[in-house]
Amino acid sequence: MTEELAFRGFEYAPAPESRSIVRLEDAYGLFVGGRWREPAETYTTISPASEEPLAQVGQAGPEDVGAAVAAAREAFAGQWSALRPAERAKYLYRIARLLQERAREFAVLESLNGGKPIKESRDVDLPLAAAHFFYYAGWADKLEYAFPNRRPRPIGVAGQIIPWNFPLLMLAWKIAPALAAGNTVVLKPAETTPLTALLFCDVLRQAELPRGVVNIVTGDGRTGAALVSHPDVDKIAFTGSTEVGKAIQRELAGTGKGLTLELGGKAANIVFDDAPLDQAVEGIVNGIFFNQGHVCCAGSRLLVQESIQQPLIDKLKRRLGTLRVGDPLDKNTDVGAINSAAQLQRIEELVAAGEQEGAEIYQPPCRLPEQGYWFAPTVFTNVAQSHRIAQEEIFGPVLSALTFRTPEEAVEKANNTAYGLSAGVWTEKGSRILWTAQRLRAGVVWANTFNRFDPTSPFGGYKESGFGREGGLHGLEPYLRFDGDATEWGG
Amino acid sequence: MSSTPVLPGGFELPLEPRLPRIGAVDQVALEERAASLAKRSIKQESKRFALELAVRMMDLTTLEGSDTPGKVAALAAKAIQPDPADPSVPSCAAICVYPNLVPAAVARVRGTGVKVASVATAFPSGQSSLAVKLLDVEEAVAFGADEIDMVIDRGAFLSGRYAKVYDEIVRVKEACAAAHLKVILETGELGTYDNVRRASLLAMAAGADFIKTSTGKLPKAATLPMLLCMLEAIRDVHDETGRVVGMKPAGGIRTAKQAIQNLVIVSETLGPDWLTPDRFRLGASSLLNDVLMQIRTQKTGRYQNPEYFTRD
Q1: Which structural domain, as residue segments, surrounds residue A82?
Q2: Is residue A74 part of a domain?
């Protein structure tokens, strides 16, 4: 009997994480001033892996946004900005601990609503989200030391708009520094992934955060637009597409509101001929297939030195065959569901363009589920800089492989993009890592690793990848005003 | 890497058309990959499949100064029929003993399909002359050992005398005649994964049928990243030359869970072709009972008392 099984290979039986830990409401309101506000309109949020409806969620209109901003203003003017900084820190520490305690519940919900594999939401999203709250809690009463002689003060009400690829983690990146600096916030989660942000409201209740300090309004782009254009918002922090980022910047021009933008990317992952090949393959896979490639800093362009192209691509293709695509809640799943029908359509369109332009497509044999939104891991070889798939952000599990001959050519190709969020360098030579990193115009450069995040490390882009930094001390700065700021004089 | 050793003349010859690039190993990424594979959740029928496979791949081992014919007889009986209460549990692959005890082992397993492996070449340190090592091997083979587990000369390797290491393996392979040769690198003494990779390639170039992590006499032995590092070297040799080399982690594998993690790494690195006792062995002295206990738990749905399984 074992011979027969051995012939099939070592197939893993389903190992699903239980959904029972999550208790979903039928419908959610908007979290305004510490209370649930009944929205005028609602929409259905689904699981992208099955298209199963999960809950009704509010579509916040301009009045709802206005009420949220008013609640945030009142909380700011009232007790929050006057609170002793050490007291602010206590709330943040509480939130961090509660996220840790409820990590499994949040991880399951994140995978359910967003489609990402449970092993990622469990091992990456949740631990990092809690780490961000812990980290910024530590700064809350040390701002004078962080920015000596500059008299740091909170700026007021921050409007924050976050994307659907790391819903809870992006919420943490936004809320933790804002609160640590003494601001209040109105946050809009992404249209397709509102549920963990709504569950987070329960954490705020448990933490006894004063009413109105954090307000959460769900909805589509219209809700975001209402938040951006609201006159009583002091600062906008946006993470999302470059297109929307540009529109926000146009809208805010001349208003005096602060702005930070975390936008798209088309990162180069540069593999030199002396790199440890098997580990580089792991880095390439992690760089582009982590979270289905729905990562702004994804290593979506592979730049491989021509002399090792063949063995590296062979190894990469074989490795693709071991990726397990399917049920996001299965603990053995490596690649989950595409986040939405719209995103799937965009991926399909760009992949079709790649084939049409003459690049060579490779997809491993894999069975995709019938229901839901899925896309097989894809590698394009023979890609030229002039192809759309080498220039445009695909935001899916699609890698474009190009070659280079010399380090100069690698840097030139890597920088030859409208974006500049991240890059990777693979070589055994320390001096070459430094030489390359100095010349790459990217906010983050990883050496012999990829997609590594830490709350202490600033993250952000060059060029059309945006401006402003999140994480580290740098991440506090946009949420503070200082002596000598232009706004102090010009209002 | 600038410190890549100059390889001995003739190193390429046995592996025409060409050797894989010696290359480098990145410690952080290797350990990360091994850790992520260790998190695979293996359940139900796949768990049962893996556990039975682990039994079939096991080199049941005793390598003590206190070993006697009686002890070896008990070990042989256990290897032939690991679970007397459940005859459907398969036999182990081999029993692994010192050369002196090979005759006793051979007498006990004759006709059962269980093989006899013998350590040799001044195991475990390898600190003897080549003549002594060869005599050690020849004797074990003459006693009827099917497989020889040799140790490389780590002193020579660490002092850069790769040619000596290589030549010794070639000579031992000749002395093995029809017996299969497993080459123990003693990875715990090699210091870096780069060295482990080099030693793996060297051993395979010199004619190893299997490469093996450790003697079992050192605390840090068959770790998962070490296994992965050696499997990647085996894969590169196979890619370049088509030659099939087996792998045997040994030392420190004590639980069924570890055994399954080993099999997952083999499966996801080399594929199902390597999931056979001809190509993969688990060297262990105390692993078997935990695997048997898990098999019975899988079959009955109830956790078991360790006293239900024989101690040998």
Answers
A1: 30-263+466-490
A2: yes
A282–B33 CB contact, under 8 Å: yes
Inside any domain, residue A438: yes
- pLDDT band, very low/low/confident/very high, at A9 (cuts 50, 70, 90): low
In a domain, A460, yes or no: no
| Residue A339 and residue A422 share a domain | yes
**Which pair of structure tokens corresponds to residue B37?**
């594979």
Dump pLDDT digits (tens) for A228-238: 999 999 999 99
Q: Is A430 in the B-facing interface, judged by CB distances under 8 Å?
A: no
d(CA B17, CA B243): 11
Specify the amino acid at residue B181. L
Question: Is residue A7 one of the residues assigned to a domain?
Answer: no
Contact across the interface for A2 and B28, Cβ inside 8 Å = no
> Residue A486's pLDDT is what?
60
Kindly state whether A79 is in contact with chain B, defined as any CB-CB distance less than 8 angstroms: no
Predicted confidence at residue A420, as pLDDT, reads 97
Structure tokens at B255: 């639980």
- CATH class, B23-301 region: alpha beta
* Contact A368/B at CB under 8 A: no
Closest to A6 (Cβ–Cβ): which among B26, B33, B276? B276
Residue in B211, B192, B190 with CA at minimum distance from that of residue B201: B211
Q: Strand ranges (DSSP E) for chain B?
A: 58-61, 94-97, 115-119, 147-151, 180-184, 210-212, 246-248, 282-284
pTM score over 0.90: yes
Specify the residue for token string 């992590």: B213
Tell whether A7 lies on the interface with B, counting CB pairs under 8 A: yes
Mean pLDDT (chain B, rounded): 92
Name the closest residue on chain B to residue A431, using Cα atoms.
Answer: B1
Per-residue pLDDT, A79: 87
A161-189 pLDDT, tens digit per residue, is 999 999 999 999 999 999 999 999 999 99
